[in-house]
Known about the structure:
The chain has 208 residues and is of the alpha/beta class.
Amino acid sequence: MKLLLLEDDQILSETLEHFLTRAGYEVDVALSMEEAEDLTFDNKYDLYLLDINLPEGSGLELLEALRYADDTTPVIFITALTDMDSIAQSFKLGALDYIKKPFDPEELLIRLKSKFKNDILYIDDIEFDQEAELLRKNGEIINIGNVQYKIFTTLLKHKGNLVKKETLYECLDHTSDTALRVAITKIKQRLGIDIINIRAKGYMIEKV
């Protein structure tokens, strides 16, 4: 999932960015409403994490503007406020949830996992819908051979980690180093992605 975090407290924003990135989320950070507005204009996000109380206004105002512009991206609010009017307004604008400061980052992660099933994996302009077992490039469904599909999805599920050759051999119809190299080459050419060969050990797709 790709998240936009709006939090003016730089230490907290860096802490949350680090924590969420380690948990496998892609995170853009905005320290102001203006910066957040620019990011929402230039990018598509799966979720907004918005602080309510900001020096130049309110995250509620930002969400109201986004909804007016037909942006239906789900939102979880981060707030130090406890007044019921603000909380009620956040839900009226369509917020999924709110989390009260101070909080343990693990609590935020639990809430995210409870709200979303992270069934789609991404690399560059490729997405793998694990539930539907579909590959898409720039939103268009693409078909690759069964062997290539098994190898690619295995590598993608372990993105950032070495996948041993012995594991990838199980994806092949006929096990050999040559067959594996040919399949990897076809995947790279077909999908336009980089797959790293760790000599004599295996292959990996790097985390960006």
